[in-house]
Amino acid sequence: MPKMVVLNQAGKELHEITLADTVFGIEPNQQCIFDAIVMQRASMRQGTHDTKNRTEVRGGGRKPWRQKGTGRARQGSIRATQWRGGGTVFGPTPRSYAYKLNKKVRRLALKSVLSEKVLENAMSVVDKFELEAPKTKAFNEIIANLEAPKKTLFVVSEGEDFENAFLSMRNIPTMMMLTADGLNVYDIVNANKIVFTEAAVKDVEEALA
Length: 209
Hints:
The protein is 33% helix and 14% strand.
């Protein structure tokens, strides 16, 4: 079973905890990770693209010339798709690109990326984030104490008082904070390091074990 040293905000070691083998110690499934990331990226697409078909293009109400006798091909509207300035055939219209994966696949993908972070030594655990007031300077000190690189993801428990920590962190570029129930594959893979609070580790283990 993987073990992790719990640090305080000053970066000093407090004690050691044992992580759940079924969540943080499995063999990562790369296919599930790939499928989960593709699904999340697809869901992020706005899908607001839109083109006008021949009914939406302004003009073209009159038949350009009579049906027979001119020697030219018959035409019903100058806004037909073969005309310059006409409508678009089968062009993109607003749609949602979101789709769902099976629950078991999503859970396996989440456990796989968490186990990868443990294998890569890219995960830390702190006892809690406790700030008296929202101060970006104070949170920068915590980042330095924990040796957190750019693109670090901080994970806290919903039951903790993390408001001051979140307000202090949100102005720092490339840093992100999520609650344990909002943890997702894309944000974990996108982070160079992930820092859990001790309570958040228990929340994740209860949800995924």
